[in-house]
Task: structure prediction
Amino acid sequence: MIQGLQGLRQNWYRKEGLSITRNERHIRKHRARSGRQDHRGHEYVWYETWDTTLNRAILSLNSLSVAPQSRVSRKIKKRDGGFRIQSRIPDFGLVRRTKYIRKMEGGVEVIKKKLHSRLVAIVEIKPAPADTSAHKVLDALEEAYFDLCAQVGVFAGNPDIKEIIGIFAAGTYWNFEIFARNSGDTSSDDDDDDDDEDDESYKPSSERHSSSEARNESVESWSGESDESSESSPDELDIINKPEDPGRQELVAEVSSESIEETIGADEAYILQTEEGEHGLKLLMEAIENLEGCEEFDGPL
Result:
């Protein structure tokens, strides 16, 4: 059985390498056609690579699944009495599922049978850097990181999400951060002055725009009192905050006090198909297992 699992891991590793080789060929072709040696290729070609990477990382873990483009949403109560839903769609999500949960009843921990799932990590992918110089790698990772911060902001209205992991990648370069709830922020989330604009408090402090913008800015609005019949049935992975929630708390990276360069510096990035990259995947799985707010899950990953 151990040999069989090792063989599967080697097979997935080989698939990942072949996907990267294909993507590098894709970039060379676009550079030749466009005459631009700084052409980064397209984002979508890296989806296959990262689908392979994520599935390889969770190969021996029973409770984790890869969820491509899992929608996350938040519901905001507007001043006119209606509601507004803002949805964002990360490139990938990692979902933890269980059949049993742990609960405290009368001071005693009990295990109950209950299907339960939670989005524990989201992934934002961008094209590979124009070259391997430190500042180009940093630029590409910053682009992914800023979009990731906007994705994470959607979770701020849900009090059950204490922490979530954000993975940001640019081609084969990547890193991850644990975004934790900031207990000091109690600003109101109930009112919305403008139906047509996104809540700026959930956007990163950057003017960058990306190819993912339209996909990430999906908004639905309706006026009048809440009517369940007018709502689309939410996916089980949707994260929708309660409209009566009197306030919200931001989810912020644990390293938010540091500069962006220190947070995602090129020298801190992991690279796929390297020994350090493999170590990074192990650290990622450990971070998911120890994520705050997942105590109800029974058993290991």
Observations:
- The beta strands are 64-68, 72-77, 83-88, 92-105, 108-126, 163-170, 173-181, 218-222, 251-253, 270-271.
- The chain is about 30% helix and 25% strand.
